[in-house]
Amino acid sequence: MRREISILYHLGGHENIVKCVGAFEGQRHVYIVMELLCGGELFDRIVERGKYSEKDAADCFKTIVQTIQHCHELGVVHRDLKPENFVLKTKEYDSKICAIDFGLSAFFREDQVFHEIVGSAYYVAPEVLRRSYGKESDVWSCGVILYILLSGVPPFWATTENGIFDAVLKGEYDLTADPWGSISEGAKDLISKMLVQDPKKRFTPDQVLSHDWLTGGAPAKKLDNAIVKRLKSFAAITKFKKLGLIAMAKTLSPDELEGLREMFKGFDTDNSGTISIAELQAGLRKKGSTAATEELQNLMNEIDIDGNGELDYEEFVAATLSMASQHSGDAMEKTFAYFDVDGDGSITIEEFKMALDKMPPGARANFGDVNELIEMADQDGDGLIDYEEFVAMMTSGTKADKNQRKNAKMAGYA
């Protein structure tokens, strides 16, 4: 249960993953508060329509695979993918899809092998039944989902669970009987590339998303890896917000940090406690990123707050926190309290200096003039930062915002 909560926090902020508002523990129960999704299960929509058109299926399926790709890039394997675990946000015809139920999910490092049998019979990959599998098992399950989206029936069928397992291990499925005669060769080709017994020969999520059936023959638009996106976002923010996120990294709970801690360990291959540019690039390459060395070096320069040429744990956490974690009201209050040492509801220059004094020497120098940092956030000009001003800087806080505010002050408008 704790792992599921940690995973929900870790994946937070993605529009196609159910949002965890918070988790609370009482004397007898654990309470997980999640966003309300009232559109019903994707499976019910399939049954209701009988089957999806190819366009419906392609649009729906692309979202599913993009969501799983996002999970994999952040080091999470779902392990229980099925239509029932994709829920529609609303009852509208074109409602967004949300992945739910991460109770069997796990954090993983690249090339990690799992051995326990988990999942649902119709969707389980053959290597799971053989007790030796990795993230590729999610792609098999996605292949089964696509088969059902197009035909309305599962590819592997029997009257007992053991019979279904036997069918999965044989790997024989039909792409000729009704309705497959009226389904495009492209769709059938994609299914055949996903329902491959050997996980090493199976399509990756990136290959699935680049398949002609999903792209319409056009080249697939290459998107940034989820981690690279977060690093770029951190690089573009003001020094004030960078300091705020480093403070936030110090105040988050173990459940909220578990995913980032596992990711950090995966990159830190020499167990030195820091991530070098070579380790960062090698780790991202394993996750399918093609980011250039020069681009990563520029990002490293912006993220390496203490200037030692490598990323330590708190720098990495601050740079890769999800937007959901950054904007969490609870996290924001704890971070404000980290600076507001005397608890009087405002941050003084002296308190800001105290926070900087807790940073390594290189970091203190990097943040520059404290008075300038305070001035940028101090909207009413009283020399203090109250909670509202702090939240305003933390929820915007890009370099562009800083320049706009500076220009406004010079013009006498702020």
Question: What secondary-structure arrangement, pairings included, does this model have?
Answer:
Blueprint (H helix, E strand, L loop, with lengths): L1 H10 L8 E6 L4 E5 L7 H8 L4 H20 L2 E2 L8 E3 L8 E3 L6 E2 L18 H4 L6 H16 L9 H10 L14 H10 L10 H5 L2 H4 L10 H10 L3 H13 L2 H14 L6 E2 L1 H10 L6 H11 L7 E2 H8 L2 H4 L2 H11 L6 E2 L1 H9 L3 H7 L2 H8 L7 E2 H9 L3 H12 L4
Antiparallel strand pairs: 1-2, 3-6, 4-5, 7-8, 9-10
The CATH class name of the largest domain reads: Mainly Alpha
Question: Uncertain spans, ≥5 residues at pLDDT below 50?
Answer: 404-414
Q: If classified by CATH, what would the architecture of the largest domain be?
A: Orthogonal Bundle
Give the overall silhouette. Answer: elongated
Q: Could you give the distance between the termini?
A: 48 Å
How would you state the average pLDDT, rounded?
87
* CATH fold annotation of the largest domain: Recoverin, domain 1
Radius of gyration: 24 Å
* Percent of residues in helices: 40-55%
Q: Which structural category do the helix and sheet elements fall into?
A: mainly alpha
Please list the strands of the largest sheet in the order they lie side by side. Answer: 1-2
Query: What is the number of E strands?
Result: 10
Please, what is the CATH homologous superfamily of the largest domain? EF-hand
Tell me the count of domains. Answer: 2
Description:
This protein is mainly α and 414 residues long. It has 2 domains: 40-215, Orthogonal Bundle (Transferase(Phosphotransferase), domain 1), CATH 1.10.510.10; 226-410, Recoverin, domain 1 (Orthogonal Bundle). Helices cover 51% and strands 7% of the residues. It is built from 22 helices and 10 strands. It has helices at residues 2-11, 42-49, 54-73, 126-129, 136-151, 161-170, 185-194, 205-209, 212-215, 226-235, 239-251, 254-267, 277-286, 293-303, 313-320, 323-326, 329-339, 349-357, 361-367, 370-377, 387-395, 399-410, and strands spanning 20-25, 30-34, 76-77, 86-88, 97-99, 106-107, 274-275, 311-312, 346-347, 385-386. A two-stranded antiparallel ribbon has the order 1-2. Strands 3-6 form a two-stranded antiparallel ribbon. Helix 12 packs across helix 15. The model is unreliable at 404-414 (pLDDT under 50).
